[in-house]
Design a protein that fits this description.
This protein has 4 helices and 12 strands, in the order ββββββααββββααββ. By secondary structure, it is an alpha+beta fold. The strands form 3 sheets. The chain has a 5-stranded antiparallel sheet, covered by helices on one side. A 5-stranded antiparallel sheet has the order 5-6-7-8-9, with helices on one face. Helix 3 runs antiparallel to helix 4. The chain starts with a strand and ends in a 5-residue tail after the last strand. 40% of the residues are buried.
Amino acid sequence: MDALFAIAGRDFVISVSDTSNARSIVRMKKNYDKTYKLSPHTLMSACGESGDIANFAEYIQGNVRLYSVRNSQDLSPSETANFIRNELASSLRSRNPYNVNMLVLGFDRNTGESSLYRIDYLAAMSKVPFAAHGYCAHFVYSVMDHEYNKDITLEQGFAIVKNCLTVLKERFIVDFPGFTIKVISSSGIREYSTDEI
C-alpha cells in the first residue's frame, strides 16, 4: 500500500511519499522515510518489497557516493537514473531480481534544469514531468494531468500536491499516517511538513 508521487517544474522537483511500512494487513512502522539522498541535488524514492528496497537503495547510495569520491564530482540526475536502470536490468537477469519501483529526482547544476525519472521493477525508465507509484497512482495521475503545466511555480506545485493529498484522503480506503514532502532545487534538498505547503 505504498504511495509515491512527484512533480517536476523547470527548476525544482517535489517528491511526496507516505510514511508507513506495511506488509499485508500489518503496519510495522508509521514514520518510515522512503526517500534516499544520493547526492546534494539528487534524491531517490522507492517502493516495493521492504528487504529489496533496503538492499538495493544502500547498494545504489554506496556506488553513487563511490563515484563521487573517485571522480571528485557528483553524477547528474540523468547519469544517476541511467546507472540505476542498468543495475536493475542486470539484477532482473540474475537469480535474485529486485522488486523495487523508483522515482529519481534531481536538479542538474550544469544545465540549471530539474528532472524526474520513473523506473519500474522491470527496469523500464522514462523521463516524465510527473509520476506516481503504488495504489495512489490510480487517484493522483488524473489530478496531476489536469493541473500540471510546464511553467508551474513552486507554489503551484504545492497546490497540486495538496489536491492530490485531498483526493487520497477522500477517495482511497487506506488512511496513510503521514507524508514526507521534499523539494529538490538549486539550493539542495529541503523537507517540508504537510502544514508548510
